[in-house]
Amino acid sequence: MLQIQNIEKYYGNKNNVTRALDRVSFDVEAGEFLAIMGASGSGKTTLLNCISAIDTISAGKILLDGVNIADLSEEELAKFRRERLGFVFQDFNLLDTLTIEENIGLALSLNHTAPKTVQERVRDVAQKLGITDILPKFPYQVSGGQKQRAACSRAMVAGQSLLLADEPTGALDSKASKNLLEIMSNMNQDMGATILMVTHDAYSASYAKRVLFLKDGRVFNELLRGERGRPVFYHEILDVLSALGGDISDVI
Protein backbone atom coordinates (compact mmCIF):
# COMPACT_ATOMS: atom_id res chain seq x y z
CA MET A 1 0.00 0.00 0.00
CA LEU A 2 2.62 2.54 1.10
CA GLN A 3 6.17 2.73 -0.23
CA ILE A 4 8.78 5.04 1.31
CA GLN A 5 11.74 5.22 -1.06
CA ASN A 6 14.99 6.85 0.06
CA ILE A 7 13.32 9.96 1.40
CA GLU A 8 15.35 12.85 2.77
CA LYS A 9 14.24 15.96 4.60
CA TYR A 10 16.38 19.02 5.23
CA TYR A 11 15.62 22.19 7.16
CA GLY A 12 17.47 25.47 7.12
CA ASN A 13 19.74 27.02 4.49
CA LYS A 14 23.09 26.14 2.99
CA ASN A 15 24.96 27.69 5.93
CA ASN A 16 22.96 25.85 8.57
CA VAL A 17 21.34 22.64 7.35
CA THR A 18 19.59 20.12 9.61
CA ARG A 19 19.00 16.66 8.15
CA ALA A 20 15.81 15.36 9.74
CA LEU A 21 15.44 12.27 7.51
CA ASP A 22 18.36 10.51 5.85
CA ARG A 23 17.47 8.08 3.04
CA VAL A 24 14.63 6.37 4.89
CA SER A 25 13.04 3.43 3.07
CA PHE A 26 10.34 0.92 4.06
CA ASP A 27 7.03 -0.49 2.84
CA VAL A 28 3.69 -0.82 4.62
CA GLU A 29 1.42 -3.64 3.54
CA ALA A 30 -2.36 -3.29 3.45
CA GLY A 31 -3.79 -4.41 6.80
CA GLU A 32 -0.52 -3.92 8.67
CA PHE A 33 -0.11 -2.28 12.10
CA LEU A 34 3.30 -0.57 12.13
CA ALA A 35 4.80 1.44 14.98
CA ILE A 36 7.65 3.92 14.53
CA MET A 37 9.81 4.67 17.55
CA GLY A 38 12.75 6.88 18.37
CA ALA A 39 14.00 9.46 20.83
CA SER A 40 13.10 13.14 20.52
CA GLY A 41 14.75 14.49 17.38
CA SER A 42 15.03 11.08 15.70
CA GLY A 43 12.76 12.17 12.83
CA LYS A 44 9.64 10.13 13.60
CA THR A 45 7.17 13.03 13.65
CA THR A 46 8.80 14.59 10.57
CA LEU A 47 8.35 11.25 8.81
CA LEU A 48 4.65 11.13 9.71
CA ASN A 49 4.17 14.73 8.54
CA CYS A 50 5.80 13.92 5.19
CA ILE A 51 3.66 10.81 4.68
CA SER A 52 0.53 12.84 5.39
CA ALA A 53 1.72 15.57 2.99
CA ILE A 54 1.60 18.13 5.79
CA ASP A 55 5.30 18.62 5.08
CA THR A 56 7.24 18.05 1.85
CA ILE A 57 10.26 15.83 1.35
CA SER A 58 13.59 17.11 0.00
CA ALA A 59 14.35 13.95 -1.98
CA GLY A 60 12.99 10.45 -2.61
CA LYS A 61 9.45 9.22 -3.19
CA ILE A 62 6.35 8.47 -1.12
CA LEU A 63 3.94 6.23 -3.02
CA LEU A 64 0.44 5.35 -1.87
CA ASP A 65 -1.02 2.62 -4.05
CA GLY A 66 1.58 3.54 -6.65
CA VAL A 67 0.76 7.26 -6.72
CA ASN A 68 3.63 9.63 -5.86
CA ILE A 69 2.08 12.19 -3.52
CA ALA A 70 4.78 14.72 -4.47
CA ASP A 71 3.20 14.91 -7.94
CA LEU A 72 -0.21 15.95 -6.61
CA SER A 73 -1.53 19.51 -6.86
CA GLU A 74 -2.74 21.37 -3.76
CA GLU A 75 -6.33 20.48 -4.63
CA GLU A 76 -5.41 16.85 -5.20
CA LEU A 77 -3.46 16.79 -1.92
CA ALA A 78 -6.48 18.09 -0.01
CA LYS A 79 -8.63 15.39 -1.60
CA PHE A 80 -5.94 12.79 -0.86
CA ARG A 81 -5.84 13.70 2.84
CA ARG A 82 -9.62 13.84 3.10
CA GLU A 83 -10.39 10.57 1.34
CA ARG A 84 -7.34 8.36 1.84
CA LEU A 85 -5.93 9.28 5.24
CA GLY A 86 -7.36 9.14 8.74
CA PHE A 87 -5.67 11.00 11.59
CA VAL A 88 -5.56 10.33 15.33
CA PHE A 89 -3.72 12.90 17.45
CA GLN A 90 -2.95 12.90 21.16
CA ASP A 91 -5.05 16.04 21.73
CA PHE A 92 -8.09 14.53 19.92
CA ASN A 93 -8.75 17.58 17.65
CA LEU A 94 -12.50 17.42 18.18
CA LEU A 95 -14.62 20.54 17.75
CA ASP A 96 -16.31 21.51 21.02
CA THR A 97 -19.29 23.13 19.25
CA LEU A 98 -20.25 19.87 17.52
CA THR A 99 -21.64 16.70 19.03
CA ILE A 100 -19.59 13.51 18.92
CA GLU A 101 -21.79 12.31 16.06
CA GLU A 102 -21.24 15.54 14.12
CA ASN A 103 -17.49 15.42 14.75
CA ILE A 104 -17.24 11.88 13.42
CA GLY A 105 -19.26 12.65 10.30
CA LEU A 106 -17.78 16.09 9.59
CA ALA A 107 -15.50 15.04 6.72
CA LEU A 108 -18.36 13.15 5.06
CA SER A 109 -20.61 16.19 5.36
CA LEU A 110 -17.93 18.44 3.87
CA ASN A 111 -17.74 16.00 0.95
CA HIS A 112 -21.48 16.55 0.38
CA THR A 113 -22.34 12.96 1.33
CA ALA A 114 -26.09 12.44 1.70
CA PRO A 115 -27.18 13.03 5.33
CA LYS A 116 -28.76 9.59 5.60
CA THR A 117 -25.52 7.96 4.42
CA VAL A 118 -23.50 10.05 6.89
CA GLN A 119 -25.73 8.92 9.75
CA GLU A 120 -25.53 5.26 8.71
CA ARG A 121 -21.74 5.30 8.42
CA VAL A 122 -21.26 7.18 11.70
CA ARG A 123 -23.53 4.85 13.63
CA ASP A 124 -21.89 1.78 12.08
CA VAL A 125 -18.35 2.75 13.06
CA ALA A 126 -19.51 4.07 16.47
CA GLN A 127 -21.10 0.71 17.22
CA LYS A 128 -17.91 -1.12 16.29
CA LEU A 129 -15.90 1.11 18.63
CA GLY A 130 -18.45 1.03 21.44
CA ILE A 131 -19.43 4.71 21.61
CA THR A 132 -23.01 4.70 20.28
CA ASP A 133 -24.28 5.96 23.64
CA ILE A 134 -22.19 9.17 23.54
CA LEU A 135 -23.05 10.26 19.97
CA PRO A 136 -25.50 13.00 21.14
CA LYS A 137 -23.00 14.42 23.65
CA PHE A 138 -20.41 17.17 23.18
CA PRO A 139 -16.66 16.54 23.62
CA TYR A 140 -16.56 18.34 26.99
CA GLN A 141 -19.19 15.90 28.30
CA VAL A 142 -17.16 12.72 27.72
CA SER A 143 -13.90 11.23 29.03
CA GLY A 144 -10.52 11.39 27.35
CA GLY A 145 -10.75 7.74 26.36
CA GLN A 146 -14.16 8.31 24.79
CA LYS A 147 -12.81 11.34 22.91
CA GLN A 148 -10.00 9.23 21.50
CA ARG A 149 -12.47 6.52 20.42
CA ALA A 150 -14.43 9.26 18.67
CA ALA A 151 -11.22 10.40 16.97
CA CYS A 152 -10.61 6.83 15.79
CA SER A 153 -14.18 6.65 14.51
CA ARG A 154 -13.71 9.90 12.60
CA ALA A 155 -10.49 8.54 11.11
CA MET A 156 -12.24 5.43 9.79
CA VAL A 157 -15.76 6.59 8.93
CA ALA A 158 -15.14 7.46 5.28
CA GLY A 159 -13.32 4.22 4.54
CA GLN A 160 -9.86 5.81 4.59
CA SER A 161 -7.18 3.38 3.51
CA LEU A 162 -4.45 4.47 5.96
CA LEU A 163 -4.77 5.58 9.58
CA LEU A 164 -1.94 7.77 10.90
CA ALA A 165 -1.65 8.02 14.69
CA ASP A 166 0.70 10.53 16.34
CA GLU A 167 1.29 9.63 20.02
CA PRO A 168 -2.39 8.61 20.37
CA THR A 169 -2.07 7.68 24.05
CA GLY A 170 -0.11 10.78 25.06
CA ALA A 171 -3.04 12.54 26.76
CA LEU A 172 -4.58 9.43 28.35
CA ASP A 173 -4.11 7.69 31.69
CA SER A 174 -2.87 4.10 31.77
CA LYS A 175 -6.33 2.49 31.77
CA ALA A 176 -7.63 4.64 28.89
CA SER A 177 -4.37 4.06 27.00
CA LYS A 178 -4.76 0.29 27.25
CA ASN A 179 -8.38 0.50 26.12
CA LEU A 180 -7.46 2.64 23.13
CA LEU A 181 -4.61 0.35 22.09
CA GLU A 182 -6.89 -2.67 22.27
CA ILE A 183 -9.43 -0.80 20.14
CA MET A 184 -6.76 0.08 17.57
CA SER A 185 -5.62 -3.54 17.55
CA ASN A 186 -9.21 -4.65 16.94
CA MET A 187 -9.59 -2.05 14.19
CA ASN A 188 -6.54 -3.59 12.55
CA GLN A 189 -7.54 -7.22 12.99
CA ASP A 190 -11.32 -7.07 12.63
CA MET A 191 -11.87 -4.03 10.41
CA GLY A 192 -8.76 -4.41 8.26
CA ALA A 193 -7.44 -0.95 9.12
CA THR A 194 -3.88 -0.22 8.05
CA ILE A 195 -2.27 1.72 10.91
CA LEU A 196 0.98 3.68 11.09
CA MET A 197 1.58 4.85 14.66
CA VAL A 198 4.35 7.13 15.88
CA THR A 199 5.05 6.63 19.57
CA HIS A 200 7.78 7.06 22.16
CA ASP A 201 6.11 4.45 24.38
CA ALA A 202 7.31 0.84 24.27
CA TYR A 203 4.06 -0.46 25.75
CA SER A 204 2.05 1.18 22.96
CA ALA A 205 4.45 -0.10 20.31
CA SER A 206 4.07 -3.66 21.59
CA TYR A 207 0.52 -3.73 20.19
CA ALA A 208 1.86 -3.34 16.64
CA LYS A 209 2.84 -6.18 14.34
CA ARG A 210 6.11 -4.51 13.41
CA VAL A 211 8.25 -1.75 14.91
CA LEU A 212 10.72 0.49 13.09
CA PHE A 213 13.30 2.35 15.16
CA LEU A 214 14.69 5.67 13.97
CA LYS A 215 17.95 7.21 15.11
CA ASP A 216 19.34 10.47 13.73
CA GLY A 217 16.90 10.37 10.84
CA ARG A 218 17.76 6.82 9.75
CA VAL A 219 16.16 3.41 10.24
CA PHE A 220 18.26 1.90 13.02
CA ASN A 221 16.50 -1.43 13.51
CA GLU A 222 13.30 -3.34 12.88
CA LEU A 223 11.35 -5.87 14.92
CA LEU A 224 8.64 -8.25 13.71
CA ARG A 225 6.23 -9.58 16.31
CA GLY A 226 5.32 -12.78 14.51
CA GLU A 227 3.60 -15.32 16.75
CA ARG A 228 5.17 -14.02 19.94
CA GLY A 229 2.93 -12.71 22.69
CA ARG A 230 2.74 -9.00 23.38
CA PRO A 231 4.65 -9.14 26.73
CA VAL A 232 7.60 -10.90 25.04
CA PHE A 233 7.52 -8.38 22.19
CA TYR A 234 7.45 -5.53 24.71
CA HIS A 235 10.70 -6.69 26.31
CA GLU A 236 12.33 -7.12 22.90
CA ILE A 237 11.40 -3.53 22.11
CA LEU A 238 13.04 -2.41 25.36
CA ASP A 239 16.22 -4.29 24.38
CA VAL A 240 16.41 -2.42 21.07
CA LEU A 241 15.78 0.89 22.80
CA SER A 242 18.73 0.11 25.09
CA ALA A 243 20.89 -0.50 22.03
CA LEU A 244 19.88 2.89 20.66
CA GLY A 245 22.01 4.38 23.41
CA GLY A 246 21.42 7.26 25.75
CA ASP A 247 18.81 7.44 28.46
CA ILE A 248 15.98 4.96 27.78
CA SER A 249 13.60 7.32 29.54
CA ASP A 250 13.89 9.59 26.50
CA VAL A 251 11.92 7.08 24.42
CA ILE A 252 9.74 5.31 26.98
TrEMBL record:
<dbReference type="GO" id="GO:0016887">
    <property type="term" value="F:ATP hydrolysis activity"/>
</dbReference>
<dbReference type="GO" id="GO:0022857">
    <property type="term" value="F:transmembrane transporter activity"/>
</dbReference>
<dbReference type="GO" id="GO:0098796">
    <property type="term" value="C:membrane protein complex"/>
</dbReference>
<dbReference type="InterPro" id="IPR003593">
    <property type="entry name" value="AAA+_ATPase"/>
</dbReference>
<protein>
    <submittedName>
        <fullName>ABC transporter ATP-binding protein</fullName>
    </submittedName>
</protein>
<keyword id="KW-0813">Transport</keyword>
<dbReference type="InterPro" id="IPR017911">
    <property type="entry name" value="MacB-like_ATP-bd"/>
</dbReference>
<dbReference type="Pfam" id="PF00005">
    <property type="entry name" value="ABC_tran"/>
</dbReference>
<keyword id="KW-0547">Nucleotide-binding</keyword>
<comment type="similarity">
    <text>Belongs to the ABC transporter superfamily.</text>
</comment>
<dbReference type="InterPro" id="IPR027417">
    <property type="entry name" value="P-loop_NTPase"/>
</dbReference>
<feature type="domain" description="ABC transporter">
    <location>
        <begin position="2"/>
        <end position="241"/>
    </location>
</feature>
<keyword id="KW-0067">ATP-binding</keyword>
<dbReference type="GO" id="GO:0005524">
    <property type="term" value="F:ATP binding"/>
</dbReference>
<dbReference type="InterPro" id="IPR003439">
    <property type="entry name" value="ABC_transporter-like_ATP-bd"/>
</dbReference>
